[in-house]
Design goal:
The structure is a single chain. The protein has 139 residues and is of the alpha+beta class. The protein has a domain at 72-138. It is built from 2 helices and 7 strands. It has helices at residues 71-122, 125-138, and strands at 2-5, 8-11, 19-28, 31-38, 48-52, 55-59, 65-67. It has a 3-stranded antiparallel beta sheet with strand order 5-6-7. It has a two-stranded antiparallel ribbon with strand order 1-2. Helix 1 runs antiparallel to helix 2. The longest helix has 52 residues, at 71-122. It is elongated and about 105 Å long. It starts with a strand and ends with a helix.
Length: 139
């Protein structure tokens, strides 16, 4: 194909691709539509040594994935890692729950003492008796 750009003529040959019609048919505005695709375009995949959730694996140029360790050892190591993570995570969670329970109890006691002081200052004996009964339940 002869083209001209700013007065300079040159030959241009667009790259040719082998296109195949697929078996997929569609319909657009009532007319049949045939889809096509390029038959042999290969996309090189990166080769890399990767790790997912502590498990090493390798990718190939063809896009395949290979395990870096034997499957039996892999299962055992993954199980041990999960068990260790669960154990340390559970201990941290248990400690956090204990701390929050203590803080909650301290906040309730402070609030109750404040309400009791206000009730005594107002001279409300019925409320004072209720709050003292509530205080005895907390202890």
């Amino acid at each position: 194909m002869k083209l001209c750009y700013r007065g300079i003529e040159y030959d241009y040959t667009p790259p040719s691709l082998e296109v195949k019609d697929s078996e997929i048919l569609g319909c657009y505005r009532g007319r049949p539509l045939h889809f096509s695709y390029i038959s042999h375009v290969t996309v090189p995949q990166p080769v890399a040594n990767l790790t997912y959730r502590g498990v090493p694996y390798t990718t190939t140029v063809e896009g395949h994935v290979r395990s870096a360790t034997p499957v039996a050892a892999l299962r055992q190591s993954v199980f041990q890692a999960i068990q260790a993570a669960d154990n340390s995570g559970m201990q941290a969670r248990r400690h956090l729950l204990q701390e929050s329970a203590v803080a909650h109890r301290i906040n309730i006691q402070r609030s109750l003492e404040h309400r009791l002081a206000v009730a005594r200052a107002q001279g409300n004996e019925a409320l004072v008796q209720q709050l003292e009964a509530e205080q005895h339940q907390l202890v």
